[in-house]
Amino acid sequence: MAGACSTDEPDLPTTTLMTPTAALKVFMPVRAPRIRLVCCSYAGGNASAYAHWHAGLPDDVEVCAVELPGRGARFREPPLRTMGALADHVMASLLPLADAGIVLFGHSMGGALALELASRLVDVGMPPSALAVSGCAAPHLPSRRRRRLHDLPRDELVQELNLLEGLPAGMLDADAFIDLFLPTIRADLECRETWRAAIRAVPVPVHVLAGADDALVALDDLGEWQRYSSLPIRVRVFGGEHFFIDSHRAEVLAHLREILGEPPAPAGGGAVKRASASTAERIA
């Protein structure tokens, strides 16, 4: 049975109908939003990764966090195992949201999902206002991992994930926790590792966010994202490793405010480097 998103303000109507299988979660509904920021999480992640982002964004932006089967409030549902299935699933919740502009954001595997969603939205005449991919290499590039992970035995998979720092700190610390969530992590890795994206330049502004010390994404290759947009891309490098969106959250949200149409407050420091193929900036 469909129901409205829960909110502490009962007089404020929610902007997204939620059902037991809905793919989007809105933590702070906005009346008549100007833009919806649709956030896709990393492998094994859930919507709660973006639970507090609304506090650092303009008041007229509604944050819609993707909640996929197999995690969070949908933990008892079996996870999906292909990128196409993930994108089709989320699209069913995106299509009714044509009353406001859409900006897509995805971190790590979520960047791949966000790219798939952008392509589908273009095809149905609802091109997003922008696509922001974070901690995510251009999909046509070879993986920096030594081998495929999703079909490794349990202990080898856990060891590889710890070595690669591909999951948030502490996520693999307890055996009981590992066994609870590893099937979903494995399914997400299968989605990413078996995905073959078509190289297609969509008419959407693409913003590439990266961590200066991310072992999974080569800074020299960030310009390869230009193949996926017919418009000049913009690249920004933050301090931090793969999960710089947590360690440098304030700077990331300031950059997103700029993408969403509100310039960030002036801040001192930070060297800026510009590239010919795209605009590249570094935040120390």
TrEMBL record:
<protein>
    <submittedName>
        <fullName>Thioesterase</fullName>
    </submittedName>
</protein>
<dbReference type="GO" id="GO:0016787">
    <property type="term" value="F:hydrolase activity"/>
</dbReference>
<feature type="domain" description="Thioesterase TesA-like">
    <location>
        <begin position="38"/>
        <end position="260"/>
    </location>
</feature>
<dbReference type="InterPro" id="IPR020802">
    <property type="entry name" value="TesA-like"/>
</dbReference>
<dbReference type="InterPro" id="IPR029058">
    <property type="entry name" value="AB_hydrolase_fold"/>
</dbReference>
<dbReference type="InterPro" id="IPR001031">
    <property type="entry name" value="Thioesterase"/>
</dbReference>
<dbReference type="InterPro" id="IPR012223">
    <property type="entry name" value="TEII"/>
</dbReference>
<dbReference type="GO" id="GO:0008610">
    <property type="term" value="P:lipid biosynthetic process"/>
</dbReference>
<comment type="similarity">
    <text>Belongs to the thioesterase family.</text>
</comment>
<keyword id="KW-0378">Hydrolase</keyword>
<dbReference type="Pfam" id="PF00975">
    <property type="entry name" value="Thioesterase"/>
</dbReference>
